[in-house]
């Protein structure tokens, strides 16, 4: 299990990069992403392969953002409810 210092929310997935040869023709495609300041890249022969690799990265990032936002909304809701009950402005 990773240590807590290995967890980061600093994640970026970039668009697929076209790599050209000396003649200017597209030779390969490269998926680029960054986690915690470290850049990663993975080359593929065609665009479909690159997109198939990139899709789970983007989906995972979207789910991560959604989970963080949901947790923050729950925390804010609890704080508001606790404050409103304490101040007498909220009645059930």
Description:
The chain has 92 residues and is α+β, with helices and mostly antiparallel strands. The protein has one domain. It contains one helix and four strands. The N and C termini lie far apart (43 Å).
Topology:
Layout: E1 11-13, E2 17-20, E3 26-35, E4 38-44, H1 47-87
Antiparallel strand pairs: 1-3, 2-3, 3-4
The SS-based structural class is alpha+beta
Query: What proportion strand?
Result: 25-35%
Domains (count):
1
Q: Biggest sheet: strands, sense, closure?
A: 4 strands, antiparallel
- Would you list the SSEs in sequence order as H and E? EEEEH
Task: Please summarize what this structure is.
The chain is α+β, with helices and mostly antiparallel strands.
